[in-house]
């Protein structure tokens, strides 16, 4: 009797009847939910992430665009979404121009 039920269940399964155990469920993969580092485009895991400029970075990837100095989260400036150290890089590239880079003598001669 048991073998008859098992045989009929096996035949119906082969014909395309679905069982909840046999169906593959579409689960979101971890890679879809993991943020990507803006510099290296690799996944940033929770234990290694540094959040800055609204993005998650690897600590060694959060570097100044000009001098490549490693930056701390929040201890730097940004321009066009790229990190720069406050002094001297950001000040020299985007700050006031002229002799002394700021202060009373920061005018340009024509």
CATH class of the domain at 27-94: Mainly Beta
Beta content: 5-15%
Q: Would you tell me which CATH topology of the domain at 27-94 applies?
A: Cysteine Rich Protein
Biggest sheet details: 2 strands, antiparallel
Domain LIM zinc-binding: 35-96
Keywords: LIM domain, Metal-binding, Repeat, Zinc
GO molecular function, one term: zinc ion binding
Biased composition (Basic and acidic residues): 20-30
Describe this protein's structure.
The chain is α+β, with helices and mostly antiparallel strands and 110 residues long. It has a domain at 27-94: Cysteine Rich Protein, CATH 2.10.110.10. It has three helices and four strands. It has helices spanning 2-14, 30-33, 86-94; strands spanning 49-52, 55-58, 77-79, 82-84. The strands form two sheets. It has a two-stranded antiparallel ribbon. Strands 3-4 form a two-stranded antiparallel ribbon. A hairpin with a 2-residue loop joins strand 3 (77-79) and strand 4. It is elongated.
Features:
about 25% helix; 3 helices; disordered C terminus; elongated; alpha+beta; about 110 residues; two-stranded antiparallel ribbon; Cysteine Rich Protein; two-stranded antiparallel sheet
In short:
By secondary structure, the chain is of the alpha+beta class. The protein is 24% helix and 13% strand.
Helix-strand blueprint:
Layout: H1 2-14, H2 30-33, E1 49-52, E2 55-58, E3 77-79, E4 82-84, H3 86-94
Antiparallel strand pairs: 1-2, 3-4
């Amino acid at each position: 009797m048991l073998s008859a039920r098992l045989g009929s269940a096996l035949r119906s399964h082969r014909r395309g009847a679905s069982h909840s155990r046999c169906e593959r469920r579409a689960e979101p993969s971890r890679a879809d939910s993991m943020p990507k580092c803006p510099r290296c485009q690799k996944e940033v895991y929770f234990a290694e992430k540094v959040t800055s400029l609204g993005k998650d970075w690897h600590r060694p990837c959060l570097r100044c665009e000009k001098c490549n100095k490693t930056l701390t989260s929040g201890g730097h400036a940004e321009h066009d979404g790229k990190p720069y150290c406050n002094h001297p890089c950001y000040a020299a590239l985007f700050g006031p121009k002229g002799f002394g880079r700021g202060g009373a003598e920061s005018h340009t001669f024509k």
